[in-house]
Structure formats: C-alpha cells, structure tokens
Design a protein that fits this description.
CATH superfamily of the largest domain: 5'-nuclease
Distance between the termini: 56 Å
CATH architecture of the largest domain: 3-Layer(aba) Sandwich
Number of helices: 12
C-alpha cells in the first residue's frame, strides 16, 4: 500500500513573520493550516494555475500533455495561451526524418487530439499495413477522438515508467513502446527527446504522414492538405514535405 510522504517547506523572512502573527492572533491553529489554505486557493485559481503551467512548459522539459493535466485544462487551451504570449508550442519537427519502413507503432493521445482538431482523423483509416497500439487506460480519450475509426487502434493493458517531465499516461505509452519494441508516434518534441534518451525510437506526426504518402496510402493532395492544417494548428512542418 502506498504511503503518503510528508513534504517539508521552509519559510523565512516576512512570510514567516506573517504566518506566526496569524497563528498567535488565533486566526489559524497552525502554520500548516495556513499553508494548506494557501495551496487550496492556488489550485482553485484557474488563471494563476494556467500561468504556472505555462511557465513550467517554457522553462523546463515538461511535455505539453503534462502541463495540461497540471492546469486541469486541455491541450488546445495551453496552445492558445502560448500563442497569446507569442510563444510557439514545441510540436512537430523542423527537419525531415523520413521513415524507411514502419509496420507497427504506439500512438499517443496528443497525435489523436491534433488530428481531431484539424479534422483529419480519417487519415488513420488509410494507415493500412501499419498496426497502431495504445494503452487500455486511454480507451475513453481515444474513442472520443476517433469515434467511428476507433477499431483501427489496438488496446493493451499497460504498466508505467516514471518519466520526469512527462504525464502518467505518457509514462504508460513509453512503457508500452519499450515492451513491444516499437516506436512511439508523438508530435511532442520534448517527449521524443525523452524517449530517444532511453534508447527507444520515436517518430513525429509529420514523418508519419509523409510515410503514408511515400507508400501511396494517401495522394499528394491529401498529404499537403494535412501538412497545411498541421501548420495552422500550429505545428512545425519540414519545408521539404510542404514543397515536395
């Protein structure tokens, strides 16, 4: 059984004096009660929490999926907040990494979310010859994004890897990628970096779409339509793919 681990917080200076004064005045029973109330206020303040999540994304290696969970928000809201601050989400790739062969891959929810947002989920129906897998715990999210195309994804019960700067769900997907010895399909640059640092393989959504085109699963117009839509999301798309 998991035990709760106590967190020690050191408070000094003016903050400590204020806390001690509040306790001595009888407004709170202890400093712990004050800290708890302050944290409850922090977590209930959506704007404050969103700002903290954006700062975490910009100043650390945290993935966009992780900060969206921490902000109790969706990925689209995080991206809108980034754009409003003239920041570009670290999604996609500036450089083409063409895939030689691909017969199976683990697909993350972020990929499905983006394809859903740009109204291109039907493209996965054309990934014939490529088996796509994800974790059983993500079935509800996957079903929401794919709807009638839900049967093209294979669901597997997953364990998890504790991956710093990634969400629990991403830890499960990386575990599955390692377990089945197959690449993880994700547009998140930060997650791909973590995966490759573990000696595993990760592929970007733009490379995946180009691979479908190179195999003639989709035609040139379909491929360009997806790339244009991805750029408008916005996602980095290699110039080579757009101009070819």
């Amino acid at each position: 059984m998991n035990k709760r681990r106590a967190i020690q917080v050191e408070i000094s200076g003016n903050l400590r004096e204020i806390i001690e004064a509040l306790v001595q005045a009888g407004l709170y029973e202890s400093a712990t009660e004050i800290v708890r109330e302050a944290l409850r206020h922090f977590f209930s303040n959506r704007e404050l929490f969103m700002n903290a999540a954006i700062n975490m994304y910009v100043n650390s290696k945290a993935t966009i999926h992780l900060v969206s969970k921490l902000a109790s928000s969706n990925i689209e809201d995080i991206i809108i907040n980034l754009i409003n601050r003239r920041l570009f989400p670290q999604l996609g790739s500036n450089r083409a990494n063409k895939i030689d062969t691909l017969d199976k891959a683990v697909i993350d929810v972020l990929t499905l979310s983006i394809l859903y947002s740009i109204k291109k989920t039907a493209i996965l129906k054309k990934s014939r010859g490529i088996d796509l897998y994800t974790c059983l715990s993500l079935r509800n999210e996957v079903s929401f994004y794919l709807m009638e195309y839900n049967n093209i994804i294979n669901f597997i019960e997953c364990d998890s890897i504790n991956l710093k700067g990634a969400s629990i769900q991403e830890g499960e997907l990386v575990w599955l990628s390692k377990k089945l010895n197959m690449p993880l399909l994700t547009p998140d640059m930060k997650l791909r970096e973590k995966v490759t640092e573990m000696g595993l393989k990760a592929i970007d959504i733009t490379d995946f779409i180009y691979y479908l085109y190179s195999r003639k699963n989709i035609d040139e117009n379909e491929a360009k339509s997806v790339f244009i839509a991805l750029r408008s999301y916005p996602i980095y798309v290699p110039e080579e793919y757009v101009n070819e």
